[in-house]
Amino acid sequence: MTEVLPRLGVDALDDLDRRLAPADADLAACYPGDARDRQPVHTVYVPADLMTPGLAADWGGHALAALDRHAGTAQALAGATAVDATLVAEVFPKILDKLAREPVEDLRLDFEDGYGARPEEQEDHHALGAARALAEAVSAGTSPPYMGLRIKCLEAATRRRGLRTLDMFLGALLAEVPLPDGFVVTLPKVTDVRQVEAMAMVCGLLEQAHGLPEQRLRFELQIETPQSILAADGTATVARMIHAAGGRCSGLHYGTYDYSAACGIAAAYQSMDHPAADHAKAVMQVAAAGTGVRLSDGSTNVLPVGDTRAVHAAWRLHASLVRRSLVRGYWQGWDMHPAQLPTRYLATYAFFREGLPAAAARLRAYAERTAGGVLDEPATAQALAGLLARGLDCGALDATEVQELTGLDRGAVDSYARRAG
Which end of the chain is more exposed for a tag (fewer CB within 10 A), N or C? Predict the structure, then answer.
C-alpha cells in the first residue's frame, strides 16, 4: 500500500494560524459561552415604594393562601390547570416547600412603569427607603438570591431622573451592606446602541463614585421597542447592543405589552405567544447565543384574582405560557402577582420532571459510551446536562436521584453542561 503523507507544510499551517488569530480572538471575546451560575426561573416586579424587608416571605404566604383557597390538593390543582395529574402529584410537595422556603428567586424593585411618575422628592425618598429595606433583608438573610432595581429609561425626558435614582439607591444600599452578588440593574425601553454604551459608561462612573471594583455593576436590557430588534439600516440592533455593553450586559428581558403596542397590535391580542412576540424573542435568542447573556420571556397581564373560576382560568393560561417558554428555551419569565407563583413553579417543576427520565438515560449512555436508540453528539450531551443542572438549581430535581439515574455527581453534570470552572 502506498504511503500517503500530508502535503501542507508547517509554514503554510503557521501562516494560517496567523491569519485566523484575530478571528479566534474575536470569537473568544464575543462568544465566551453560557453563564456558569444559576439562572432564576423568574423575575418578580414590585413597585419600589412597596418594598419591605419581609416582602419575599409575604409573597410566599400570599401564594400559599391562594393555593389553599382555590386548589388545596394536588388533584384540585391538576384539575384547575390541566397539567398532567401524575406530574402534579409528584411536584405538589415541592411547590409547597418552595413557596415556604424561597418563593422569590429574583426581585426587581420597579421605578419605571410599575411605579410611574412621582414628584422628585417622593422618588428620592422611595429610592432611599427601598435600598434600606433591601439592605435589611440582605442582613437578615431574607432577601432573594437575585435582586435589583428597574430605573427609568435613558430617553431625554427621564434619563436624569433614572440615573439619580440609581445613584441614590446604590449609596443608601452600600452604606448598610456590601453590594449583593446577585444585584443587577434593569434598563427599560432601549432604542439605540448608544444608550447601551452610555449605560456602560455610567456604571463605570458609579463604580468609581461608590468605591466598587471595576466591572462590578451589570445590567439587563429590556427589549420592548421595535428599534431594539431591527435598526433603521435593517441590522439586528439587539446583537450590537449586547457587545456594546462592554461585558456588563447580563440579560435580555422581553417586554410583552410595550413591544406589542409599538408594533400596532390590538390590545385584546397582545400576549407572550403572539407571532410578533415570537419573532422578537427568536431574534433575541440568536443574538444572545454563546455570549453568556441570558434570555427572559415577559409577563401575562391576566392575573389570578377574583373568584375560584377566574383564578383557575388565569392559572391555566399562566401554566401553559410558562411551559411554552421553557419548550422554546426561554428559561426565565416575569411574575407580577403572588398568586402566579404556584403555577410558575408547577409548570417549571413539571417540565423538568417530565424530561428527567429520558435526559438522564441519554446522558448516562453518552457518558458510558453505551449503544442506545439515539446517537448523541457532544452538543446534545451539553443540552441534556444543562436541563438537569437547571432542574437541580430550581429544586425540581434532587441531586441523589439525578446521580442514581445518570451515574454522575453534580460536578460531572455541570462539567457536561460546560458550567464547571
Answer: N
